[in-house]
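Notebook, p. 212. Picked up where the previous page left off. The plan for this session was modest: take the two constructs that came back from the sequencing core last week, fold each one, and keep the raw output in the notebook itself so nobody has to go hunting through shared drives later. Recording the first one now, exactly as returned: residue sequence, then the structure token string.
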Amino acid sequence: PGTSTSFSGTLEARYANLFDWSARSSDFALDSVTIKGRRYSLTAPFSASSAEILIPTFTIGVEGTRSTGSFFYRGFDLARDRRPPLPLPHR
């Protein structure tokens, strides 16, 4: 049997290339996501770029139980440059 998932919110996004992009939403929500027979919902304002993800607060619901949290990542670009490194000069 099929399932339906709905999402709502406003998304602002900018894309220049794989290493220069950003996205954010102040009211992102997913509802009725079914994974292995369990139904989930998620609300989370967020901002993301090639090297950072910030979710200041999120609420996840699983079959009537709600949990809250936050998430932050800053570091290496989420996409890796697949070009070979520049050769080192010979000494």
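Okay, moving on. Second construct, recorded in the same format:
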Amino acid sequence: MKAFKIYQSEVKKSRLYARVGLAVFITSLVVGFNTDQDKLALGLLIGAYVPMAASIHFNFRAYKKMQKAVWLRNRDALLR
């Protein structure tokens, strides 16, 4: 059960970072098309990849925790 709770927290982190990355990406598109601040738009566009990479990292960690939670549950079920 503890592994599943860790899985849930990792999924929440992954979703948060994905949303932040998407928001920064959309902001860079809006700034790029509506103003002539190309350097700011490019900086935001490049900066959007940092939270996206963190989201992928937390997603892989969550996947590992889910595998562990399933394995532990199956092990406990077999030992009963």
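Notes on construct two before I forget. Residues 11 and 62 are 6 Å apart (CA to CA).
Flagging for discussion at group meeting.
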